[in-house]
Amino acid sequence: xxxxxxxxxxxxxxxxxxxxxxxxxxxxxxxxxxxxxxxxxxxxxxxxxxxxxxxxxxxxxxxxxxxxxxxxxxxxxxxxxxxxxxxxxxxxxxxxxxxxxxxxxxxxxxxxxxxxxxxxxxxxxxxxxxxxxxxxxxxxxxxxxxxxxxxxxxxxxxxxxxxxxxxxxxxxxxxxxxxxxxxxxxxxxxxxxxxxxxxxxxxxxxxxxxxxxxxxxxxxxxxxxxxxxxxxxxxxxxxxxxxxxxxxxxxxxxxxxxxxxxxxxxxxxxxxxxxxxxxxxxxxxxxxxxxxxxxxxxxxxxxxxxxxxxxxxxxxxxxxxxxxxxxxxxxxxxxxxxxxxxxxxxxxxxxxxxxxxxxxxxxxxxxxxxxxxxxxxxxxxxxxxxxxxxxxxxxxxxxxxxxxxxxxxxxxxxxxxxxxxxxxxxxxxxxxxxxxxxxxxxxxxxxxxxxxxxxxxxxxxxxxxxxxxxxxxxxxxxxxxxxxxxxxxxxxxxxxxxxxxxxxxxxxxxxxxxxxxxxxxxxxxxxxxxxxxxxxxxxxxxxxxxxxxxxxxxxxxxxxxxxxxxxxxxxxxxxxxxxxxxxxxxxxxxxxxx
Length: 594
Description:
This protein is an alpha+beta fold. About 25% of the residues lie in helices and about 20% in strands. It has helices at about 10-15, 30, 45-50, 65-75, 105-110, 165-170, 305-340, 365-375, 390-405, 420-425, 430-435, 450-460, 475-485, 530-535, 555-570; strands spanning about 50, 55-60, 80-85, 100-105, 115, 120-130, 150, 155, 175-180, 185, 190-195, 205-215, 225-230, 235, 240-245, 255-260, 280, 285, 360-365, 380-385, 410-415, 440-445, 495-500, 520-525, 545.
């Protein structure tokens, strides 16, 4: 290095004497006029430039400059500006806030600077600017008048930028970024981000995170709750990762997080920035914790402490019950003692009231055995009248008849019995007259939408339309007219109505009207009141029987309930709300168009 002519006045007395040390008698004001890095020999610059390719950084190694430079810096009280500069190709990859240091000369010895993010290839060197004395230390040092600048040798740096961090790879490359769903733990939230970095993650890589809160998901991102700088680390997949755990948060609010990376690729204005320089998480709902969580930390929610509430509530109820019981007992004892002193004496006539022995009650199983074991036991007789509204509804009546025959020990007579078709169709009134004359025959009329509308039609209140294939439909109408018009039959106690429960065809709005309704006509709900129907037919009282009525007839009851379930699910034929005419083609005879 050639010594500048302007420096000869200073260098001659300085270099006089010992070649490795400054003369101790040199005045302080003369020392402050020297740029100490002028004393560095050309062969020593490699020792001053501490290039670390692992961390992509360049350090100022003052100890490598030699004792004269160290002694000079320690004796000076001036400011230095140290910067990393490059040639015309590499200068655009430098930032003043990252690659510039300014401070007192002695600080260079105690804590020399290190410049990060030298990841772009090119030629770089250090610039040492002597800024002179500044007593106020308020003005920043700039190269210009009254400054002395020394440059180091150039160092060549190979690029360490990953290939996907080029501007051509930024657009649409979403595979390099992963935003995990925030995890809520109590009133804290953990956010995770991972991405493919532009360069190897370094210890000085950081990110600025900002936590926002809002009452709604759409408004999250306006009200700042907390901000912090966090480190970036490498996860198991070799990607750059960011994790932030929030402090204790106020509950019943939405929270979201934004992340701004401090990487140099995100701060250079001369290059296009990568897509992951600014990240934002989804809004997550943080529920409020109950008050008891301050006492019991594991009670993060009311559901988590449900068992505790049950135990406490049960204990309080038990204690309260015991206190009330003791109080009631004490009060009753005190009242009894007071009443015993004021009780009036009453003469006892000497008569003892004797209760007659109650009639022994029979069980249902015992009652059924009377029909099962003795053939001479008279069976009940039931004339069953029903409207064949749908095919499945008619099959339900067959299951009902089978139950009455097997479980209720009754003979069932039906207008639609195929074996008696010729006899019934010839003269239905004459056939019905035989059952009316028999006082042992009970008449059960099934209430349904078809029966209800036929009754309305007979009274002239509603027109009745019948399909073309309904050959047997008029039989029920004839039977209904005969039973309703027969003098005194409806009020004789021999006629009852029945409805199937929870069935759209036999809902309560389809109950038959007078004369088949009133105080003298009973209505039975099937299958709940089958045992009452049994007692009505056999002239028994339900309270005189004990046990379960159908304990030995589970199969018959199950068949009846299965048939009932099929009709409950069948709404296609009767439903005309969608418009159009129902299809009666495959339903067979005896089906009524409602």
